[in-house]
Design a protein that fits this description.
Layout: H1 2-26, E1 34-35, E2 40-42, E3 47-48, E4 58-63, H2 69-85, E5 92-96, H3 108-118, E6 124-126, H4 132-136, E7 140-141, E8 143-150, E9 153-160, H5 176-185, E10 200-201
């Protein structure tokens, strides 16, 4: 009987923990919210904040990692987005939210290796204390958040996937992030403001 009792207690703890984590995700930013700044370590050892970027119009914050096949499939497209929009004032800021104790491939040292292999043109930050991704409400890798820099703060303009085809970049029908950035830069309404992020769950 004691064994059954302990199993039931354990099950209740697991359910409560899962519910609490999900609530943390659900309470993340929504389109129209103002995103707080952060200060995270880059692969070069330097600390990076959004406020470091003085002459920008916004930021594409992408929660991504080394280990997820979805994230890997999108790496070249994220590099291309940074190259296309950085000079227009919208740089990519990549953040690895995963716990390396659970996924060793996402360790800080492995991040440095991966960034060098792929030639990342953007900062690749580590959310060591796993405090930033819950604030954003990121649940998957990759998960994109387009922020517009305004006098009042960093306004969330788009949340979701890079596009609608992770398997084949040549077969994309809706380039959600590109469409959102183009509209933002042109002062137009973003037609698709939210999409479902497709990828691996964040390892906590």
């Amino acid at each position: 009987m004691k064994t059954v009792k302990y199993l039931l207690i354990g099950l209740v703890v697991v359910v409560i923990t899962a519910f609490t984590v999900q609530r943390a995700f659900d309470s993340g930013y929504q389109v129209g919210d103002m995103a707080e700044d952060f200060r995270l370590k880059n692969i070069d050892g330097k600390m990076v904040s959004l406020s470091d970027y003085k002459d920008v119009k916004g930021y594409l914050v992408v929660f991504t990692c080394n280990s997820c096949p979805y994230a890997v499939a999108y790496e070249d497209r994220i590099i291309a987005l940074d190259k296309k929009y950085k000079d227009q004032g919208v740089p990519v800021i990549a953040i690895n939210p995963n716990n390396p104790s659970i996924q060793p491939k996402d360790s800080y040292e492995m991040m440095k290796t991966r960034a060098k292999e792929k030639g990342f043109t953007f900062p690749y930050l580590i959310d060591e204390d796993q405090e930033i991704f819950p604030k954003y409400g990121a649940t998957r890798t990759p998960h994109c958040f387009l922020l517009e820099k305004t006098p009042k703060g960093n306004l969330v303009r788009y949340i979701g996937a890079v596009d609608d085809n992770y398997q084949d970049a040549s077969q994309v029908n809706n380039a959600y992030v590109e469409q959102a950035i183009d509209a933002m830069l042109n002062g137009q309404e973003i037609e698709i403001k939210n999409t479902k992020a497709i990828g691996c769950s964040i390892k906590v």
